[in-house]
Design brief:
By secondary structure, the chain is of the alpha+beta class. About 20% of the residues lie in helices and about 40% in strands. Strand 34 and strand 35 form a beta hairpin. Helix 5 crosses helix 7 and helix 6 packs across helix 7. The radius of gyration is 30 Å and the shape is globular.
Amino acid sequence: MKSFLVSFMLLSGILCFAQESYQSIILKKELTEHANAVLRDESILVEVEDVDKMTVTTRRVVTVLNKYGNGFVRAYDFYDDGDAKIKSQSAYVYNKMGNEIKKYKQRDFKDQSAVGSSNLYSDNRVSYLDYSPMSYPYTVVYESEVQMSTTVFIQPFQPVDAYYVSVESSEYQLKNPNHIPLRYLESNLDSIQVEKNNTDFEISYAVKNIPAYKYEPYSPQISELTPKVKVALDKFSLMGVEGTANNWTEFGKWQYENLIKGRDELYSSTIAEITALVKDAETDYQKAKLIYEYMQGKTRYISVQLGIGGWEPILATEVDRVGYGDCKGLTNYMKALLASQGIKSNYAVVYAGDEQKDIDPKFASMQGNHVILNVPGIAEEDVWLECTSQSLPFNYLGDFTDNRHVLLIKEDGGEIVKTPNYECDINLEETLCEIDLSEDAFTANIKKQSKGIPYGNNYHIQGQKDKDKNIYYKEVFGNLQGIHFDHLSFENDKEQASFSEELEFTGKKFYTTAGNRILLPLNFIEPEIDMVSRDEDRHYPVEILRGFTNKDQFNFKIPEGYAVEALPEAISIETDFGSFKFSVESSKDDPDVLVVKRSVSVNQGHWPADKFGDFREFLNKINMLSNQKAVLVKNS
């Protein structure tokens, strides 16, 4: 009997402890502060059994504190029929007291294609937990085992990959019994306490009690701040195709030989058509431009995630025949068209997106999510082509692939280079506004020109429906009431990558009256500068990814019967972060016209956290000084 009681008490203690471990109310304050979710317990085991056999076992326990934390549960795994198979998958959901409220077996998970609606063919799928919480907080325990034949991708150790998520415990282990040569690269580990036990062929890491990273305005990407260990094998397999590489030259060579080579042949009729197209062109630059525009007019983008793991482009002849392809297929097709005229170009792998993520120059591995084309030798600087767009100008990338390291895949090996950087003076928006004022309304004529990154952000307006244009401009001029547009016209100069807008509209008065005076705000268009709140405890550096320059001139025709009584003084500010200039004066040609000139430049750059106060003061001064008013008085 005594033995039974002891066993019962031990079992009860174990059950009680297991239940309490999923309680949300026992979480430490330092883990809930600034957190939307807490990674309670994560265990990742990567077992590399051979060059073409790997198993990843995951256990992930996440407590979601509020609705903003739902996306951090991440109870899913990817698979495809030819490579990765989910051997087991389960999930358990617990309420805030640690009581189980839902259990999911593998058959209960939802299954769908792992790519977007623009995809035509794909083997990639995702099996995911579909759970809608009834209350917060709640906890999800997710467990899975995935077996794959591709080993060119090794899951990194990255316990924190987002703001507002804290970590109670995270462990990572890679086993490699066959001693396949292994490389790894650590970053930001000095910012935390970490236990590690690494040998030449196996690695393990463990961290505990990492508070949530709270986002700060103008802070760097989270990946630049948080701990991470990248891992790669020197001998690997991609969908049954094996390779060996431990540097970018070797890795690019393997990709060229196995993914690109021999896929750029064209029909003789197509070569003849291109030859006729460029026969009068005097330079290779002119030829390349004509061929690019031909390709844009002939093809459209549709994702095709087939081939070797979705990394191999479809044949150039196939793109030529059907008129569509994904980024790989269209880039390879454009490369083939140029080659038909003796123009050399390079297939370039890139991380696309406005956050400017780099292919890591220090760590050769399978990276990137997009492909563009590099054309050297036909201009003073390399030409870059985005081959998935039917509307972008020749040699224009925009903020999708600007200013980041990319991998050129060449016949003689890989090379890391950087795409063009659109600097402050190139990212230019110039606006001229003629505003005719009356006592209760205004009429405005605006001419605006955009270049650099703003060109890519604005030129699409021309193709929108009239209804959408009206909605867009009413948001742009959100400080003005009762707007009615009488005329909208546009000019897209693709030769110069310059977009022009001309608007004519009326609206209700945006100024106030005080007796026989008008207080006239001089910021007819508000500056594109956010007000930044004070932060005495700034932790992270200040980063501006892209600088810009805005030059505005507002010519106010004052109402009949009024005269200028007072004007603000001119001001000029120069700082490391940028510059601001503002002036207002009566026109020399017409004393009834007030000419307001405003210039704002914000520099691209990276500054330490202790400079945030100066940076904040610069931005807020721009907003404050832009809000100055002129005083008009009615003639007696």
